[in-house]
Design goal:
Elements: E1 4-7, E2 12-15, H1 22-25, E3 35-36, E4 44-47, E5 59-62, H2 76-99, E6 104-107, E7 124-128, E8 131-136, H3 144-158, E9 163-169, E10 178-184, E11 191-196, H4 200-207, E12 211-216, E13 219-230, H5 244-247, E14 248-253, E15 263-270, H6 283-323
Parallel strand pairs: 8-9, 9-12
Antiparallel strand pairs: 1-2, 1-3, 4-5, 6-7, 7-8, 10-11, 11-15, 12-13, 13-14, 13-15
Helix pairs in contact: 3-4
Bound molecules: zinc ion (ZN).
Biased composition (Pro residues): 334-343, 361-373
Biased composition (Low complexity): 344-357
Region (Disordered): 298-380
Amino acid sequence: MSELALDTTEGRIIDLRRETAAASLLPRGKAGGRYRCCACGKELIFSGPATPQSSFTPRFRHDGAEPGLDRCGAPGAHQADIQADLTVILDLRDQLLNALPRADVYLQIAPHRAGQRWELPPALIIRHNDQVVVIERPRRPLTKATADARLQHVRTTYGERSTHWWFFDHDDAQQYLAAGTVKVRPHGKPDTHHKVRPTAVQRQLVQAGGAVCWITSGTLFIPYGGHPGAYPALEGEDWSGKMASWAKDWKISHPYPADSAAWWGLVPLSLLALGQHTGFCPAPAFALMSALEKAQHGREAHRRNLAREHAQRAASTQRTSTKSVVPPAETPAAPLPVPPDAPTAPTAPTAPTPATTEHQPVPPRPTLPPPTPLRDVRPQHGRFSWRSLLPRRWHR
Ligand SMILES: [Zn+2]
């Protein structure tokens, strides 16, 4: 831990291995109690090289009577936990600095937390122009109380306009509950997305206005909501017989999953893509979700067309069999609809969408839960629309 210290003056973590300029900028010695050990909370002494040419490795050490003594009083397991937490989040900081070279990215911590056992490591702060993004990287199971307290703290400290992201570990079976896959066709191109079953706390975070994603190496997985259901028959539609399986479908809620989502689908996104737009924003992932919604409208229009054709065929078959004497065997066979898995391009004419929709600005993350509780998405009687279940702000 000799390279790590809590800087009480700046309220941030110093890591001498990553901040090579720090050695020449930081005051030496005790500096009035400025440096604290993150594990035991005691004051630290900063030693730097005597000259820029010196090969001395700058370090923090505990105050001890004997020269060279550097023993931390905290239990070994606690020291290891703190060091692992800080290493993981500082690695993430380095990755984010690559993605957002013009942003200020630092690990913020309140001085009183020095030496405390924390459930949730200190958060990364990204400042870019007027934008403030707070990033959490939980490493241990998160309780609702801890999540609530941190959400509240961030809102109070950085204001309602700040964005609060929670990066969960994609390779941690307690944080990532795999739930199969879903076939998708954004822009008519077939693809498969992984589905995840969010934990109660992950749902709570999104409900409270936070944003959740998973991370592994340099890839993020950004979630949208999946709402399975069935199309209720409108006037003039027949969903019986071979059409029955076509009635079953799912709908998307995005750019953040709605509370009533049965599962969350995941859009993979390179961490480096975060900086391709102004500030921190997973814009390509959000654009892809819009494409999924567009495909969904096309799918619904196509299937409803088939259901209407099915109804018309049934009606004409009935007329034929009651009015004519032609035996049923000679009735021309009605063409069967293509199976549900086949490409489902909309048959209804749709206006071409300008390419600019791919990069529409994304509205700032709402910081309040949906204004009205969302109903369960299940087939209902009468005119039904999934969109009507979503809060107004998700309507486009
Ligand atoms: Zn210590």
